[in-house]
Amino acid sequence: MSMTQKIETPSITYEQPLGLFIDGKFVKGTEGKTFETINPSNEKPIVAVHEAGPEDVDIAVKAARKALNGVWAETMPSVRGQYLNKLGDLFDEHIDTLAAIESLDNGKALSMAKVDIGLASGCLRYYGGWADKIHGKVIDTDPETFNYTRHEPVGVCGQIIPWNFPLLMWAWKIGPALATGNTVVLKTAEQTPLSALYAATLVEKAGIPAGVVNIISGFGKTAGAAIASHMDIDKVAFTGSTVVGRTILQAAAKSNLKKVTLELGGKSPNIVFNDANIEDAISWVNFGIFFNHGQCCCAGSRIYVQSGIYDKFIEQFKARTQKNVVGDPFAADTFQGPQVSQLQFDRIMNYIQNGKESGAKLETGGERHGKEGYFIQPTIFSGVSEDMKIMQEEIFGPVCSISKFETEDEVIKKGNETTYGLAAAVHTTNLNTAIRVSNSLKAGTVWVNCYNMLSYQVPFGGFKESGIGRELGKYALANYTQVKSVRMRL
Ligand code: NAD
């Protein structure tokens, strides 16, 4: 099989790299295996890419280790920053190609994919800015001692990313790791390998030395597991399901006790009070659940509406949702494309079936959209009780559950009745309510009168079983550095 293939998308034609990007070169996997990636809009294969197994992970780790101790250690922090700035600029220059690949492989609307690329390039430049601003402290203890700290890179970082925001996750992981002087072996999700490989060509173009960034395509149980248990990987950063997050933590504990950061799932409460600006709230609630086809770890999937506006809210929310345009990701007015895979489609349809059978009221949606592709109608259930599966489990699709509440105390209790704690939102025009409720919700992010607002300057991560550590902002730098104390007797 060749190492590139010309691919035609509805918006552009481009040359797709297919190999594993290891030590600055695209190579075949040692086992000679390939796997196909499927276009979720028509269920047909797009192309086959080379597959990494444990031996390829090992080769990539060796390249990353060599670069870590060699060329990258000799690169000045300011130059690391220049590389990240250049990489960010290249993302912007190639936005049409990168966005088209995301829409083709993941199914997200082209307009939304362009927003992702803009956020990814901004993130890379943001961390480029941090690269020469990472420093320790001098700490006074007594006149005979001179103490200082150094913030050193953790080392070789294994990074495992999901399929819901392939390039954004790529940038969230690679930006802070490189800024702080680490090298990486990043494994993409098997559903969406294409954009990350194209981005590897931009790593080359930016002049980043060979071995600093290694990108591999492969499956979780083989390549992913090999990263988690590798004895020469110093840290693993993972985004994906809570089930796999646990496996990774266990593998790290059983191997070399590598550092682990996890960004996992959620079942986030979105709370609308009687005094909310109802039109504004409906628009954000709609965006909170249906953005990216509900495939967001922070999706506002549990909607609590206060009794005074409950009926009006449902009527207007239903009307708003029915206007969401579902269809071809390449069409200009599309808001919601297909789910990423047959497996996800089936999982979500099972949850919808369960909702129908459990006594919740189906307000709108609930069926497949169209005849081919993994499209699902935006679906709203009302009258959902706390014990129902659709209220408790992460569906990761365009399905939300609405429940009525009377008092602030009641909704705080319900909002927190979950093992997750990634995000939450409050809609109210009362500042006191906004602050009281935000402070009481056990979640890593609380949005007030908005939803899904993510900026690379602001930390993001989970309370409870939604994760360990924080991504983005200054906080992510701590995930990729270790503090050394030097104590000198004078
Ligand atoms: P997943 O957790 O299985 O996959 C995410 C990544 O982990 C992929 O790169 C995958 O190859 C890798 N992986 C899988 N098993 C692994 C293992 N044993 N060791 C190391 N790496 C492994 O997620 P999924 O099956 O694609 O989706 C299932 C559910 O996960 C979704 O329905 C959703 O609830 C959740 N999810 C959450 C996020 C998020 O952003 N938090 C993203 C994707 C999926």
UniProtKB/TrEMBL annotation:
<dbReference type="InterPro" id="IPR029510">
    <property type="entry name" value="Ald_DH_CS_GLU"/>
</dbReference>
<feature type="domain" description="Aldehyde dehydrogenase">
    <location>
        <begin position="26"/>
        <end position="486"/>
    </location>
</feature>
<dbReference type="Pfam" id="PF00171">
    <property type="entry name" value="Aldedh"/>
</dbReference>
<dbReference type="GO" id="GO:0004029">
    <property type="term" value="F:aldehyde dehydrogenase (NAD+) activity"/>
</dbReference>
<dbReference type="InterPro" id="IPR016162">
    <property type="entry name" value="Ald_DH_N"/>
</dbReference>
<dbReference type="InterPro" id="IPR015590">
    <property type="entry name" value="Aldehyde_DH_dom"/>
</dbReference>
<dbReference type="InterPro" id="IPR016161">
    <property type="entry name" value="Ald_DH/histidinol_DH"/>
</dbReference>
<comment type="similarity">
    <text>Belongs to the aldehyde dehydrogenase family.</text>
</comment>
<keyword id="KW-0560">Oxidoreductase</keyword>
<feature type="active site">
    <location>
        <position position="263"/>
    </location>
</feature>
<dbReference type="InterPro" id="IPR016160">
    <property type="entry name" value="Ald_DH_CS_CYS"/>
</dbReference>
<protein>
    <recommendedName>
        <fullName>aldehyde dehydrogenase (NAD(+))</fullName>
        <ecNumber>1.2.1.3</ecNumber>
    </recommendedName>
</protein>
<dbReference type="InterPro" id="IPR016163">
    <property type="entry name" value="Ald_DH_C"/>
</dbReference>
